[in-house]
Design brief:
It is a single chain. The protein is an alpha+beta fold and 187 residues long. The protein has a 6-stranded antiparallel β-sheet.
């Protein structure tokens, strides 16, 4: 299985596999990573990053997370990760990992899903509203984007803490928006 930073996390991958081995899941290779499924449905995936090792829960947002160990990465809607720094870290949290995975399996078997966010759930920054007022053609181009593309831009614009940064982000995105491309398609 090819995976980013595989060599760096070789021991952690082995330890995580050991922890997950006793649970009622099937290990498959998806996206070149060890992925655990139940009845063909994704439960967790093992991922190695530059700074940390992680176990991603596909429906992690639906887990209770009593230990507060699940982290949302970026714009990911339902997925949550449990981060680790070493084999020792994984071994120390083995009981927690198993408990969370059992809950994730139960969530999957119950067919629970996160409710999809609507575009209207995302705040429209005042700077974008101002730009729309001054440039109706730009407003039409933005509204012609798919809802997913609109949401990714709204998230990107609103994530800036300062007004000047929001304005700069909007201006930089304008050519791509006029071309009908999404935020991740701009480059």
């Amino acid at each position: 299985m090819e995976m980013a930073y595989r060599e760096r996390w070789r021991a952690e991958i082995a330890e995580m596999r050991r922890v997950l081995a006793g649970l009622a899941m099937k290990e498959e290779c998806k996206w070149a990573k060890p992925t655990y499924t139940v009845d063909g449905r994704n439960i967790v995936i093992i991922q190695g990053f530059k700074e940390y090792f992680a176990l991603l829960f596909f429906q992690g947002a639906l887990l209770k997370d009593p230990k507060k160990v699940l982290v949302q990465l970026g714009q990911v809607h339902a997925g949550r990760v449990m981060k680790f720094a070493s084999v020792k870290d994984i071994t120390a949290k083995a009981a927690t990992i198993k408990a969370y995975v059992r809950e994730a399996i139960a969530v999957e078997k119950a067919g629970l899903r996160m409710e999809k966010k609507k575009t209207s759930d995302f705040p429209v920054p005042e700077e974008l509203t101002e730009r729309f007022r001054g440039d109706p053609r730009f407003k039409r181009a933005f509204e012609a984007l798919t809802p997913g593309r609109q949401r990714s831009y709204l998230y990107h614009f609103a994530a800036a803490k300062q007004s000047a940064t929001r304005v700069a982000r909007i201006e930089k995105a304008m050519p791509a928006i006029f071309e009908g491309r999404g935020f991740l398609e701009r480059r």
